[in-house]
Amino acid sequence: MSKKEFIKNILTILFVLGLASVHSISSADSFGPFNIIESNPVSELWLNPGFYSYHFQTDKNLDSNNFGLGAEYRYSTVNAITVGKYHNSDRQISSYAAWYWQPLELGTVRFGALLGLVNGYPKANNGAWFPLVLPVASYEYKRIGISFTLVPTYKDIVFGSFTIQLRLKLY
């Protein structure tokens, strides 16, 4: 399978999973201390200026200021798609496309995962696109949001970090 076919297949899977989960969970359910969020249609557009990364490997001279521009379209109370570009920790430009799935809440904080593709990391697939699955938590108040993501270390290819991303809701 070529890289182009692989990327097309991943994006198709993400799209189908996103559509399938729009009406899949009832709000009366819970998962331990978490409430399961009822999936209802919404239409929200969020922008972000990239993110800040706290790297676990502080001796690697990584850039923690990962500024860029991203957009997120939330089409249900538990699903969103996002795309953007940012200056990555290896001081290269990365592009990303991903799907957020956040079906759990604890108080006003949502929890779930981000599934997608990213490029621009020289040691990861020679800078080409590669898939990622990351845990994510977010908090929103009116037009301001903040997201937290945990990036695990993978060999000497991707260095682990805890990221913080501010978001602004346009509508």
Molecular shape: globular
Question: Which band does the percent of strand residues land in?
Answer: over 45%
Q: What fold name goes in the CATH topology slot? A: Porin
Gyration radius (Cα, Å) is: 16 Å
Low-pLDDT segments, ≥5 res: 22-27
String of helices and strands = HEEEEEEEEEE
Which secondary structure elements does this structure contain, and how are they paired or packed?
Blueprint: H1 3-20, E1 30-31, E2 34-36, E3 41-55, E4 65-76, E5 79-87, E6 93-106, E7 109-118, E8 130-141, E9 144-151, E10 161-169
Antiparallel strand pairs: 1-2, 2-6, 3-4, 3-10, 4-5, 5-6, 6-7, 7-8, 8-9, 9-10
Task: Describe what you observe in this structure.
This protein is mainly β. The protein has one domain (3-169): Porin. It has 1 helix and 10 strands; from the N terminus they run αββββββββββ. It has one helix at residues 3-20; strands spanning 30-31, 34-36, 41-55, 65-76, 79-87, 93-106, 109-118, 130-141, 144-151, 161-169. An 8-stranded antiparallel barrel has the order 3-4-5-6-7-8-9-10. Strand 4 (65-76) and strand 5 (79-87) form a beta hairpin. The longest helix has 18 residues, at 3-20. It is globular. Residues 22-27 have low confidence and may be disordered.
